[in-house]
Design goal:
Helices cover 39% and strands 15% of the residues. By secondary structure, it is an alpha/beta fold.
């Protein structure tokens, strides 16, 4: 049986923590959806989602991240035709990532069952043993066609590093493997290709190479390379991906190290590229600003084959 979700009638919740462009993005959202609510400054990803579920007042709830700018002004006037079982799934739309040109679910608009938002325990290993680095590893997940928004993660060096680190780590590991023991054979190019999809490998390479022409883009690239190395080669516990304080401490250590010695940032980039190429066969290149800009402009994200689309 097919059903319609009317986006003009369901709850919309904006989720922000410390994103530099959050106020501008929320104003944009409110201009399109005056009823939009907001969860701000809540620590812990599960707690953020739980609070959004509490604030939502309809069976389905739309979430928009703090670094997400809605570019499709008609999105919230549309209706989605879905199958009845998909009422229990997260429906995910792509977002265009400003600094590297990728477009997929990372940072995109999502539609949740309200009950799932209120109960989710997917990110905090202290609350849920075996918690993963992302909700889609534990919940039904449906791809939707269309790219109704863009996401910008390079407002500051810390935010760029955090976004790159989290995505570099997630893309370098198979879904649902928060502990090193879950994938004991990781650490070789063969294992990476065996466990990680071709689409995610392409995204990983772009995160690790493209964006140097954008302010703080080099930090996003460095974060992605470091996250990839730590997740795929250094047996990192994936709980760090959801630990913003831990990532901030890691960034401070990196920033202090680079500030102490001129040229240290560039040297670290070369070492990480060499390691990722030699041990994981990623075939990364160091792109200057012109090369990075050209790569982003030339890249065309593959069309997302999503069964659900706005009407």
């Amino acid at each position: 049986m097919s059903l319609l979700i009317d986006l003009s009638r369901i709850a919309v919740i904006f989720l922000s923590y410390d994103e530099p462009e959050a106020e501008e993005n929320f104003r944009r959202l409110q201009s399109l959806v005056p009823r939009a609510g907001r969860v701000h400054g809540v620590k812990g990803l599960d707690a953020v989602y739980n609070r959004a579920g509490d604030l939502g007042w309809t069976p389905q709830v739309v979430t928009v991240d703090g670094d997400n700018f809605v570019t499709d002004s008609t999105f919230f006037t549309r209706r989605l035709q879905i199958n009845a079982p998909e009422l229990d799934a997260v429906i995910s739309f792509s977002a265009r990532i400003a600094h590297n040109g990728l477009a997929y679910g990372n940072g995109g608009i999502k539609i949740w069952p309200r009950a799932a938002l209120r109960e989710i325990r997917a990110h905090d290993p202290l609350r849920t043993p075996g918690a993963s680095s992302d909700f889609f590893e534990r919940m039904p997940y449906v791809l939707a066609s269309g790219v109704p928004s863009r996401t910008s993660v390079t407002g500051t060096a810390l935010h760029a590093f955090r976004a790159g680190f989290r995505e570099g780590a997630r893309l370098a590991r198979p879904p649902g493997s928060p502990a090193p023991s879950d994938c004991p054979d990781m650490g070789t190019a063969e294992a990476l290709r065996r466990h990680v999809s071709a689409d995610n490998l392409e995204r990983l390479r772009i995160w690790c190479m493209v964006g140097a022409d954008v302010e703080n883009g080099a930090w996003a690239i460095h974060g992605a390379r470091l996250g990839c190395a730590m997740a795929a080669l250094d047996r990192m516990d994936m709980a760090l991906v959801s630990d913003y304080d831990g990532i901030a401490a890691l960034w401070r250590d990196e920033a202090a190290r680079f500030e102490a010695r001129p040229g240290a940032f560039a040297d670290a980039g070369v070492r990480l590229i060499d390691r990722l190429n030699q041990e994981l066969g990623l075939a990364l290149s160091e792109l200057d600003e012109e090369g990075s800009r050209a790569a982003r402009e030339a890249y065309v994200p593959p069309p997302r084959i999503g069964r659900i689309g706005p009407r």
